[in-house]
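Input for the complex:
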Amino acid sequence: MILTLAKSKKKSNLFKDKTYWKTTWSRFKSGDRFAFQEIYSEYIDSLFAYGSKITNNRDIVFDSIQDLFIDIYRYKIDLHKPESLEFYLFKALKRLIQKKLLLSRKFKNIEESDFFTFEIKFNLEEDYIQNETEQIRLQVLNKALNEMDENYRELLFYKFNSNLTYKEIGQLIGMNPDTVKKQVYRIISGLRKNFKNKSLILF
Amino acid sequence: MNNYKDIIENPFFIKWIFNPTIELDLYWDSYIEEHPQEANMILELKLKLRNINLINNMLSEAEKLKLAYDISKRLDGVDKRITQKKRLNNFFKYAAVAILFFSVGASVVYFSIGKEDLVKYVSEIKIPPTVNGPMLILPEGKSIPLKNGESTLDYRNSGKIVLNEDSIVIAVELSIMNQLVMPHGSSSKVVLCDNTVVWLNAGSRLIYPSVFMNKTREVVLFGEAYFDVAKDNNKPFLVQTSALEIKVLGTQFNISAYPEDNVIQTVLKKGSVSIRQIGETKFENEIILKPNQLASFDKSTKLSKVTNVNTDFYVSWIDGLLSFENLDMNRVIKRLERYYDINIQFEDPMLGSIKISGKLDLKQNKEEVFEYLAKVSTTAFEKNDEKNYKIK
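Predicted:
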């Protein structure tokens, strides 16, 4: 017996597009706290995951997420025409964290390890591992993924964790949208080939 | 040859892989039906991408709550400053502010995990990321270390806690909230003021009041606990976990809701319980469990599955026994790690999927337990040091 517990909620999620979030954003700015809850619940996980990739310092991530929402509210920031809410949140959070990190460095109350790592760890989902050969291949794949250039890892993070467009991802990491797109294809086609034959030339 | 790029560019594809929902499943089912020539490609891509599992740092529900609460408070601060400036403005603006404050109140309720004081409690106490030993944490940062291994706490005498059935008595205010933290390697038995008995397993936390003063008896659980709830038809007993709320009148059941596990398991031994997802409206989509049933709630798909089980496999841990039938070695090892506070690694991850059946007496020397387990699973345990073992 399989039961759905959250049918109504999830059905609407599919249709929460950019326009929907834009409206929610203006509702939030005009003081509607339900809109805040909605934005918060939708994005808190990815924002926190994202912040934690930039720095290991949890306090900085917490403070920056707080500031992010307060800034939006206090300064009544408007979304520019092509900007999506998601893109704005990522962009602003990145800037806030970087600012805090620089400030902390000035006052030397920060460890070197707190800095920009953009570390992405990939994990192998055990349930899906069929046999030992596949296991070994996955380990090699994992190694390759982890040795990738920082920018590429950041790129994968966006692609797998957000609805950002290639253009937006490109803007966030300072890369040409076409390059971003090509890189995603290279990684995914590498992943496919990897399972077809034994060669492990990935990236 | 189909183009995999088109599939990847479908905005619902990546979502489906990493955050699947029923609607997405339905969407792709019908998509495949309409485009049968792409079926292989889609399923292949799904399978392969699914192999990558990004490890993202996650916030616990309590942390999320605290953060939301902090932001809410600061937003209120912004509002107040704005209100002061505009105090001289006309009545209608005042009315608008009143509505605003009303919605602020509602936002706190929205984030609540039940009662407002629970929220306040969770948001006011810092949860120690790692505790050295078992500990009872009271408000205002007061914490009482408990002995390692097993301990008991008795709240039946109002106004005091009797520790380990002996002379240690702690005086407490009636209304305060208690947080009991059991790290790996320790467990405890709590007798609540209403005679309900809770066995808290290793690696778990339980938050509860000294005396149930509200219309419901509410506790918050992170981890695993077995409840023997005293019957009180007028005061339902509610257990809040990160994603589910379990409501009972009087019954015996086990909940396993470790934040690091993707599945929340509720097993009912006696009586009846109802389970609902937090954030859902009260009366819809409730699951009512019958005795000897197990409800597994998958946190990522938000789906629940109910099966009939032998409850002994799920509750024998309270007697220090671990019995299992046809269970993945992985799962058994996870339990042992929590119970003995050790790390066990598989040399070959495939060993983790060996299915084993049997019964372990965890109170024995752990080496003996490992020896027995090694025999059953035809593996070998290698000791690296006191805390680290390897299975070959």
